[in-house]
Amino acid sequence: MNIKQTDSRYVAHTYKRFDVAIVKGDGCLCYDDNGKEYIDMTSGIGVNAFGYADPVWAQAVADQAKTLQHTSNLYYTAPCAELAEILCTRTGMSRVFFSNSGAEANECAVKVARKYAAEHKGAEYYNIITLNKSFHGRTLTTLAATGQDSFHHTFLPLTDGFLYAEPNDIDGLKKLVNENKIAGILIETVQGEGGVNALDADFVKAVDMICKENDIVFMVDEVQTGNGRTGKLYSYMHFGVQPDVVSTAKGLAAGLPMGATLMSEKVADVLSYGDHGSTFGGNPVCAAAAVSVMNRMDEAFLAEVTEKGKYIKERIEAACYPVSGLGLMIGIKTKKPVSEVLAACIEKGVLCLSAKEKLRLLPPLNIPMDLLEEAVDKIIEALG
Ligand SMILES: *Cc1c(COP(=O)(O)O)cnc(C)c1O
Q: Which pairing describes strands 217-221 and 182-187: parallel, antiparallel, or unpaired?
């Protein structure tokens, strides 16, 4: 079979794929159908936290697949319970709802905020504030939450009740809050798809304060920033704030579909029987993978993520390209068009991403230093 031809003929044309068919992976390396080797600086867009076919991860998945792969949420299962306990213990949150993707994790967050506001302030308090340049998913509600018009126009009408504030504009945010009836505010601490833009610490703290003063549900979308990516287990932990809701997905199960919406004490019992559900949510195989991921993300591991992030930043800045981001979530301002840089990287055997006009790097969190050095050497060549 010709992979590329067959795919192009039969798969919906929603992805502009690179001209590469990946057939296998091993750690931070992967191989195309011609046997060409690539260093992976994408992690499948922030998913494969431990690279490809990691043996510990694969064992956890295989063991669970051979024991119990699915039961429906009508029954209790150990991996789901264990994962929820780990997530709550490590974040101070109270309860978790499991789903299968980032969009679904955010969808749940919005439902929590709306129901909380309806019960505590009145049904007219349904508005959710998000930020310009944000990205929250592809369902009609999470598209509405996404503060980028270019995603909206062909799918109108979207879910009503979303307002957009400018990132880092505290006065603008206060004005929106004062002039509208607000249920919740949803932010990414580092806007991933929007161009790897880290919010100012003062702004993140101000969002937290404004939410507390106005009994607004403070939600952080940690779909991309979560699960160790920024050098903390969740990125809000850099800012000394405590959100009411944290949504996450991508790296959580390191290569299997899993979303989670973490709820603080304040909103822990907002959703009750029948309010929400997901057939696959909390699936035992995905949950077992995530338990294994969480058990490996200790403080020493997270410190290494920070160190590797610093290494990349220093090398790239020394080559005179501005760097944005946090930990191993990195944006690089290129001089050439980013599409040319991406093509040059592929040519040199490195897979990278873009975010808006920037080159974006999301390497596996456990990438060994020698491979990282080699990848950065090649990226610097490709940038020039
Ligand atoms: C990727 C992403 C999403 C959407 O996740 P899906 O799993 O594709 O639904 C939502 N929010 C952020 C911040 C993301 O990076």
A: parallel
